[in-house]
Design goal:
By secondary structure, the protein is of the alpha/beta class. The protein is built from 18 helices and twelve strands. It has helices spanning about 5-15, 50-65, 75-80, 90, 100-115, 115-130, 135-145, 155-165, 200-205, 230-240, 260-270, 285-290, 310-315, 325-330, 345-355, 365-375, 380-395, 400-410; strands at about 40-45, 70-75, 145-150, 170-175, 190-195, 215, 245-250, 275-280, 300, 315-320, 335-340, 360-365. A six-stranded parallel beta sheet has the order 2-1-3-4-5-6, sandwiched between helices. Strands 9-8-7-10-11-12 form a six-stranded parallel beta sheet, with helices on both faces. α14 links the parallel β10 and β11. It is globular and about 65 Å long. About 50% of the residues are buried.
Amino acid sequence: MITSSLSKARNLSQWSLSRSQPVALPEEPVDQFTPVEKKKIWLVHGSHTGGHRSAARALEEALEKHPGVDAEVINLAEASQNSSPLSTAAEATLKAGPWLGKIRRWVFDQQFAGNPMVKWASNQAMAFEGRFQDKFLERLEAEKPDLIVSTMSATNSLLSHWKQTGEIEQPVHSVVTDFASHQMWAQDNIAFYYVATPAVKADLEKFGAAEEKVQVSGIPIRGEYAASSRSAAEARRELGLDPDKPLVLMLGGSLGLGGFGDTLTAIDKGEGGFQLAAITGRNEKLESELSALETNHDLTVRGFVDNMPSWLEAADIVVTKPGGLTCSEILARGKPMILKRAESGLEKRMVERLGETGAAVVVDNNEQISFQVERLLNNPEELQTLTARARELGHPNSSDEIARQLLSTISSSKF
């Protein structure tokens, strides 16, 4: 039974949801938002990995730079009493076999196509997941945050459902963490959206979101990704790399997915005096395998790193998977990308959209990646054109801009 008593609130305060620790940043001037009383914002997702969590943490960092603001990241997957939280279903298939992978891609294809039955079924699944979220709802009643921000389409669905049933009174905003939006992001009870590009804004409008409720802000990234004035050579020197050799950086997300070994081997066959670096995330097996490779070019392999901005700063070209947060961080640093085309699913739309921006080169296979690396490094003018376009598209201050908008919204009470 939900209660708002003080004793219940004290008990609930001991309950631990996922809360990231703000990253310490140098003091810098910020717009002063001084509420009459402390304002509380919950940043909600339901993911064990990836960009949804990173976007929430970046916003938490930006919000808590303002006085009188208490921002908190809450992971509904960890709060759930369901042993297999339904918000994690899509990411779970990333590690599954090819059969489940095909189902995942089909579902995303249908969501992008606007299949109403697939959206209905997905919304019903998340409403069912809500039955396992008593602790979250109890804490919501006890603490009464001023605003809830969702960084995941699955939590958009669940929070919108709770708004419909009256279990949530607070306004719900959403940050879309991809460069293409499918229909699950667009829910009836989302008050406002923040998106990466005008194309994503158009996606949401196609699926029913009102034009005035969508702002092109960029995807929130941590403040340390703001553009730096130092050269790539200086960054390479700091990382212990050869400052005089161009760097081709390979990224595969936090799980280190994407056929790293074959791609790296193909690039290594190319001509030229460049060096290679691969960041394998939390995939320790892959890190070990790549470290054992004999290569023609200097190769540096790292697992999970906490200085990714420096690695991006050091790179001349980034070969990566098309994750929304990763690509936003790359664009914020003004670095051109090479992406491999996908046949279906979310990855297909992401690659297509990023290719359309003019900041990424899209290829079909590893041999073409190798060809493009060699071609771009031998054509500095074209590489500079890609770099300039990346800088135009980057939103290095996206988190601060969204934070100011959220606080302005609370201050004016316009939800």
